Each structure stands twice: as C-alpha cells, then as structure tokens.
C-alpha cells in the first residue's frame, strides 16, 4: 500500500545538494575577485560540515524508495486472486432450484451449508441470498452484511484469513463505493472503490506515520493529492499514474521547498526553489537539475542571472554584488571561465 515513490527520484537529489555546495564555494571565490566587500553567508567550518553530512541527508531522502513495496493495489490484486474461492458462481448456482413461481418473499431460514463447505446464515428470496446474512468459509474468512440476488451487495464487512478487513459498500460481490480497508500490519485506506480497487477520493496511512490524501484512478494516485513522509517532508500537487506529474510543491523536512513543474517525479520545467537560510533560485529545471535560464540569489544580496546546464552555471551570465556592481562572465561546469567586457 502506498506510492510508487521510486519514480520520484528523490534519491537523485543528492546531485542537486552537492551542486549547491559547489555553487557556494565557486561563487564565494568569484565574488571576492569582483572586489565585493560581502562575505560568504556560509562559514568555512559549516561548509565542511555540510559536505560531511550530505551522505546522511541523501540516505534520509532515499527512504522514498522504501515505499515502493507498499502498494495497496498489488496487495488487493493478490487478494482478488485468492478470493476466487469466495463468492463463487458455483455457490450461487447451487441454491437456484429452477424457476420461481411468482415473486418470493424475503424470509429467514436455517443455516445452509454449501458443497464448498461454506455456511450461510441469513435471509433468502427463493433460491437467492437476499437481505442480511453472514457467510463463513472453511478457512475462516467471513462476510457479514447485505446481499442481493445471491451477491454481496450494500453495506458489509469482510474478514480475510490473514487479518485484513474491509468494511464498506459492496456491489456484485466486490468493494464498490465508500469503504475502509485495514491491513493486519496497521496500514489503512479509507475512501472510494471501484471493483475492489481504489478509485476516487481516499486517504492512506502507514504505521511509520507516512500518509496520503487525494485522488486515485484504477488503484493508482491520479489527480490532486498530498503525501507526507514520516520524517516530515511533504508534496502537494498533481499526480499521474502514481507519479508526481504537473504542478506541485515539495517541502523537505529541513525547510527547503520547490514549487513548480514536475515530470515523472523529477523537477522538470519552470520552478522556484527556496532554502531555509534565505537563498533562492527561480528558473528552468531538467531531470531534477537547474538547466536553462535561471536566477540564483544569496542571502547577502549577491545574485547570478544566466544559464545553467546539469545543475551548474554554464554559459553566459551576470554576477551582481550587494553594492550594485554588475559583471558579465562565462561559466563552464559551474566555474567562471572568464569575464566579458561590456
């Protein structure tokens, strides 16, 4: 149960984080050469600590991938295959003893044992289970609720043999409408269903504290939704086919935030990225990296306006200092190659 988080490439953001360290170092040097009186807002000792702890930050972000095995849709598909022995057509045919004369009235009858070993106790209409009833199977599975025309239909509750429970609306022997599915491990989905699969609006939660609230289609997150990870990171925005796609905002547990375009779980298109210490970037992204034209602003007022490639300054750009001085230059792979006289 959960999001296909491997598609979001959060682990790949280690490149983005490492690039920020390079930008801090390189631009401090470039600014000094431009004779600005401003000092780097990141002291040398802190910069070294950032380098030291970067792998740990990456490891925490990589937890996203740990959710990929928690997909309720695959869990339910497996249950559907297992459930082939429940609500069977053979059981339905067994109780239909030919044509009914007139319209039968609903009535209570003694317990009925099917050839399969399942036992039904409840109401009937002729040869059809109809009304309120309880059916138990030899392996311990049990359904308690409403029936119509020999099928689970209406409000009902089903206990799986492994401890999972579905409680909600049914139609034609399947979860249809609104209902709650609780797994034995504590994970839970509450929301809309179609033919035993999540479809519509719903809420999912996991034992570790992670949760999702939003829309589903055919068992996958699709439409607008919010996902919160156990360490506090959060994404709110659009999803397509279980992947972050479209417009959305991702907020990291450490205060960083990106708001903009996404493609298959990566920052891709135009966006705005802000750091907790006040640094900002606004511009183009490609595959989680700054790529194209963008503006990078430091806390002390320094600013770079120009082109980027694979997360690093690359091409022509302007470097501005807090005192208003502007200087044009050319960058290659994140390092200033030369100043350009204008």
Question: Could you provide a short overview of the structure?
Answer:
The chain is α+β, with helices and mostly antiparallel strands. 16% of the residues lie in helices and 47% in strands.
Note the total helix count: 4
Helicity, as a percent range: 10-25%
Mean pLDDT: 83
Low-pLDDT stretches are 6-15, 25-42, 53-70
Distance from N terminus to C terminus (CA atoms, Å) equals 59 Å
**CATH third-level topology of the domain at 5-70 and 206-340:** Histone H3 K4-specific methyltransferase SET7/9 N-terminal domain
**What would you give as the CATH superfamily of the domain at 5-70 and 206-340?**
Histone H3 K4-specific methyltransferase SET7/9 N-terminal domain
Q: Output the structural class.
A: alpha+beta
Protein name: MORN repeat protein
InterPro entries: IQ_motif_EF-hand-BS, MORN
Pfam family, one: IQ
Keywords: Repeat
Structure description:
InterPro entries: IQ_motif_EF-hand-BS, MORN. Keywords: Repeat. Pfam families: IQ, MORN. This is MORN repeat protein. It comes from Blepharisma stoltei. The protein has 342 residues and is α+β, with helices and mostly antiparallel strands. The protein has a domain at 5-70 and 206-340: Histone H3 K4-specific methyltransferase SET7/9 N-terminal domain, CATH 2.20.110.10. 16% of the residues lie in helices and 47% in strands. The chain contains four helices and 22 strands. Helix 1 runs antiparallel to helix 2. The longest helix has 20 residues, at 14-33. It is rod-shaped, with a radius of gyration of 29 Å. The two termini are 59 Å apart.
């Amino acid at each position: 149960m959960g999001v296909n988080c491997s598609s979001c490439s959060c682990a790949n953001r280690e490149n983005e984080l490492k690039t920020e360290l390079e930008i801090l170092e390189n631009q401090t040097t470039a600014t000094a050469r431009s004779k600005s009186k401003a000092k780097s807002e990141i002291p040398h000792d802190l910069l070294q600590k950032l380098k030291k702890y970067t792998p740990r930050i990456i490891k925490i972000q990589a937890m996203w991938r740990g959710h990929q095995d928690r997909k309720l849709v695959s869990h339910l598909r497996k249950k559907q295959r297992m459930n082939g022995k429940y609500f069977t057509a053979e059981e339905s045919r067994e109780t239909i003893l030919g044509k009914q004369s007139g319209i039968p009235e609903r009535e209570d009858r003694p317990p009925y044992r099917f050839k399969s070993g399942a036992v039904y106790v409840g109401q009937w209409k002729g040869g059809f289970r109809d009304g309120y009833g309880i059916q138990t199977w030899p392996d311990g599975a049990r359904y308690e609720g409403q029936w119509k025309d020999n099928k689970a239909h209406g409000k009902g509750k089903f206990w799986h043999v492994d401890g999972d429970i579905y409680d909600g609306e049914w139609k034609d022997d399947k979860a249809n409408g609104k209902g709650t599915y609780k797994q034995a491990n504590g994970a839970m989905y509450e929301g809309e269903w179609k033919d035993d699969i999540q479809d519509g609006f719903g809420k999912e939660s996991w034992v570790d504290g992670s949760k999702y609230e939003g829309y589903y289609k055919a068992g996958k997150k699709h439409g607008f939704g919010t996902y919160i990870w156990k360490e506090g990171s959060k994404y709110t925005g659009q999803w397509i086919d279980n992947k972050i796609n479209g417009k959305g905002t991702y907020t990291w547990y450490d205060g960083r935030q990106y708001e903009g375009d996404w493609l298959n779980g990566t920052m891709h298109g135009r966006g705005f990225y802000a750091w907790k210490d006040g640094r900002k970037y606004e511009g183009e992204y490609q595959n989680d990296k700054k790529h194209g034209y963008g503006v990078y602003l430091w806390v002390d007022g320094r600013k770079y306006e120009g082109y980027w490639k694979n997360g690093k300054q690359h091409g022509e750009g302007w470097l501005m200092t807090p005192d208003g001085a502007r200087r044009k230059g050319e960058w290659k792979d994140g390092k200033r190659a030369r100043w350009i006289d204008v």
